[in-house]
Amino acid sequence: MSQEIKDILQAADPANVATINFGPTHPSTHGIFQNILKVDGEKIISSEQTVGYIHRAFEKLAERRPYNQITPITDRLNYCSSPINNIGWEMTVEKLIGVDIPKRVQYMRVIIMELARIADHLICNSVIGVDAGALTSFFYPFSEREKIYELYEEMSGARLTTNMGRIGGFERDFTPVFHQKLQSFLKTFPKAFEEFDSMLARNRIFMDRTKGAGPISAERALSYSFSGPNLRAAGIDYDVRVMSPYSSYEDFDFIIPVGVNGDTYDRFMVRQEEIRQSLRIIEQAYKNLPEGDYKADLPDFYLPAKSDVYNNMEALIYHFKIVMGETELPVGEVYHAVEGGNGELGYYLISDGGRTPYRLQFRRPCFIYYQAYPEMIKGLPISDAVLTLSSINVIAGELDA
Amino acid sequence: MDTALLIEKSILVLLLFLVSLGAAAYMTYFERKLAAWIQDRVGPDRAGPFGILQPIADGVKMFLKEDFIPAKADKWLFIIGPGIAMFTALITSAVIPWGPKLHLFGRDITLQVADINIGILYVFGVISIGVYGIMIGGWASNNKYSLYGAIRASSQMISYELAMGVSAITIVLLSGSLSLNDIVTQQSGVWNIVYQPVAFLIFFICALAELNRAPFDLPECESELVGGYHTEYSSMKLGLYLFAEYTSMFVSSAIMSILFFGGYNFPGMSHFSGNTLAMLGIAAFAIKIFLFIFVIMWIRWTIPRFRFDQLMHLGWKSLLPLSLINLLVTGLVIAFKNGWF
Amino acid sequence: MEKQNNQEYLTAVQAAFGADVLAHEEAFGMLNIEMTPSRIHDAIQWLQQHQDLSVNYLTNIAGVHYPESVGREFAVVYQLHSWKNNLRLRIKGYLPKENLHIATITDLFAGANWMERETYDFFGIIFDGHPDLRRILNMDDMDYFPMRKEYVLEDATREDKDDRFFGRNNNEL
Amino acid sequence: MGKIEDLETINGEGYQLTNLDKAIALARANSVWPLPFATSCCGIEFMATMGSAYDLSRFGMERMSFTPRQADLLIVAGTISKKLGPVLKRVYEQMAEPKWVLSVGACACSGGIFDTYSVLQGIDRIIPVDVYVPGCPPRPEQIIEGVMNIHELVKKESNRRRYSEEYKHLLGTYQIEIDQHGEAK
């Protein structure tokens, strides 16, 4: 906190303090959460958050559902990048049952997850633009996002909540149309993305607006257990993909962009650079995509093909066992983390061998770092609070579980 | 004052009123289409062919929407606010010379409601009343967001009127008259923009701020203040605010064309005379106005908005000194030319 | 390599806290240490400040309800991460249902604030010394702790669903 | 034709009035300003609907009113929890008549897959809904279809409906009272 801001805070006369209800349905919250701001003029003196407006009891729900039916719940955590959540959950179960996943599946997962990361960051950054007043910056990336949705549709049939992947692999292989669309995406996306980038990244007004808005120091970010782009914007290069690689991330060459001040501009730029790095990863993974099966040999967990179920006794038994949740599971506690759109998305699973998890806790990065928001906006104008909120990318579904 | 003049002026006033309102209504349509074009979309196209009935649909809907006055609002001020905004936006156009003299029914008709010799002063006077509409409306709503919008609007307008006024004075220095008609007539050769590019830039930026248009749309910025000063307004009261905004945009485009781009003058106008000249003059003026409106909208859909302190910073620390220096330089040059030293 | 690290951590913690380390196991490559609940705060503080062990990151805090194990019905699980050694560590404390008190670690990690509030909200575990222990996700006037096993998933007061038709019996659970 | 009595009664609508009604309804249908009450996943699909590929602006709906006073259509997209229910009801009450409600997504329609202690099982328990759009989340095409159904409703609606006893009764069933000015208390 600079001396200037400290002076302002001290000078605040209680008679001049106004209370503003910032949310739950304020246009800039993009989701539903409430901030009660105490302001002196335009300067924020303190704020109080209320969350839980779309609490949906994911963890309780997960205790009632067989493992393969939990994937749809994970979709709705961070719905901007649901495939990462799906695949993260599947990898947690795979870790519990201890299975080797074919290299091809791992590479396919990397491609899908990085596509999801691009989609996630595009939403966040375009919304920063909207909150800064540049409405057009929302429409360009959204046209590109539609192409990612089309790729999802090829893989799963759904656009947003994809329920993509199965325990042990994918529901289907990359289709010819997927190949074609991915190739054209890789060709056209960089140009469109740089167009978007040139709209904001070096725009004088945008830079003035975002620099110094909602800064957080590396120490505080660490103490608040930040993760993902927000932590990296503060200058710490912690990335689960590198720290504890999963799904063959160690095979790929990419850099972790870091910021310096942890302010809105750094967060924006870190996300922009991560999109470029994700593209690089996709290109590498796609170029080196190994031959092989699109699923692991895992009859206990992977549903057999429908035609087999009708004609083959063994397949029918497996089908029955999987659907009825009769599969035997190891007892144990697993923690598995993936680098979600917003940071370390962890699954802490306690299995008692039953058909449903005994306890499943989601480590939701949004929930953990959103508590730092009052500290980040203290002493700043309301306009900066708006930008800070959109730049830390709080996704209500992930926040409230 | 003879009866014919009275009739002539009445018709002119009525015409002007309708043109301003019609222009404002269709500017909303144009803005939506332009935004759609910039954003790679289609824009309104369901209401009538190409959606040209869209403004009418909006208008009818707003007229018949429930008229709502919040329980704790100051009722009278709440009603007066939009009225003031609309009134001031409309009466500014009274001093604008819309074209050369028209010769009809054996009379020379001046296409100007009132050629008062202090035209510029009148314009500034009226514009500075305009802010009261927003201030009163925002305050009377008894809503914090509205109040913030009102405060922002008033301080923004006061700050930018200074630089705007100073840059207009340079034009007055050049032409030696406060009458808008004189200023236009003097530009029949070279337009003022050639002598005063800096003053034009300052004036244009300030005009954006006065109009509450992006990047200076802080009084109503959606992402921070929900609706700003008109958060609590519904139905036609909101409609009046929106109308006022677009009408002011129309009028200030006209004023900018008059002060810097020769008003109804156009290159090669010496080849024409009489009513042809008048018609072409009106057309040239309309085209200039249209281009200004286009640029203003273009800016809105491209650039992010300022933060409040940055806005103040720009107004007081950059534009005002710059306009003062410009005024000083202009004054010195004119003094040298007149051989006062 | 990782295994050895786990062993080193365990040895160090055992050396420092001796009898307070009640049990330990290694599950899926991750070290689990069960400790006396009252000593967990000190242990985490010690781990955080230790030069070599340097456990600098709080991953999450989870509550677990074991209604059947008498005297240790509730568990509080702290998952920690040492970036220096890239090692994850789990510290557990079991609480009896009569005395759900444990010391807060908000003084060590600012991020623990909401994690503890969430655990309180779901399980009713009281973190002593927490600056603002209120419900966070649920409504303030909720009168039970929904993640405890005895409470049903659905709204218990709803009448449009007859549990018998869904093959369920609320009394059993 | 032939029902002269209707022209003279106070409650009936004459020929001119009916046509005026139609014109007004047509105008209203072409200028439905939405208030997006987007809470979760469906909100992102609603954003996609606003985007260039689907473009709600064709219907004159790109002017979003985040303040309830100016909105005609409340688009509830996403899960509404019990904690949020009162907020939603308040937003609905603050909207000026005539107003319509579009419930987007399984959660808003019925609670969806979240049959849990914290989720409101359908927003029609607290506010009246005009059109339901199923799906989890619905595709933008579905949302547009829902919007077009709203347009149809708006076109058919009589100008007098909002003053009728039936309407008051409908709101009464949701404990929303109207005073004589037609304002929700």
Q: Keywords, please?
A:
heterotetramer; B: 341 residues; two-stranded antiparallel sheet; 12 helices; 2 strands; 67% helix; globular; C: 173 residues; alpha/beta; Beta Polymerase, domain 2; 5-stranded mixed β-sheet; 3 helices; 24% helix
Mean pLDDT of chain B equals 84
Please give the count of helices of chain D.
7
**Strand count of chain B:** 2
The amount of beta strand of chain D, in percent, is 5-15%
Description:
The complex is a heterotetramer of chains A (401), B (341), C (173) and D (185). Chain A has 401 residues and is mainly α. Chain A has helices at 3-11, 58-62, 71-75, 82-97, 103-131, 136-156, 176-200, 204-210, 218-223, 229-233, 240-243, 264-287, 306-311, 313-324, 365-370, 373-377, 382-391, 396-400; strands at residues 17-22, 34-40, 43-50, 331-340, 343-352, 359-363. In chain A, the strands form two sheets. Chain A has a three-stranded antiparallel β-sheet. Chain B has a two-stranded antiparallel sheet. In chain B, a hairpin with a 2-residue loop joins strand 1 (102-104) and strand 2. In chain B, helix 8 packs antiparallel against helix 12 (308-337). Chain C has helices at residues 2-17, 37-49, 112-123, and strands at 21-27, 30-35, 57-65, 74-82, 87-95, 101-103, 126-128. Chain C has one domain: Beta Polymerase, domain 2 (2-Layer Sandwich). Chain C has 173 residues and is α/β, with parallel strands linked by helices. With 185 residues, chain D is of the alpha/beta class. Chain D has two domains: 1-30, no CATH class; 32-158, Rossmann fold, CATH 3.40.50.12280. Chain D is 38% helix and 10% strand. In chain D, strands 1-2-3-4 form a four-stranded parallel β-sheet. In chain D, strand 3 (100-104), helix 5 and strand 4 (131-133) form a beta-alpha-beta unit. Chain D starts with a helix and ends in a 12-residue tail after the last helix. Classes of the chains: A mainly alpha (401), B mainly alpha (341), C alpha/beta (173), D alpha/beta (185). Chains in contact: A-B, A-C, A-D, B-D, C-D. Chains A and C meet through helix 2, helix 9, strand 4, strand 5 and strand 6 of A and strand 3 and helix 3 of C.
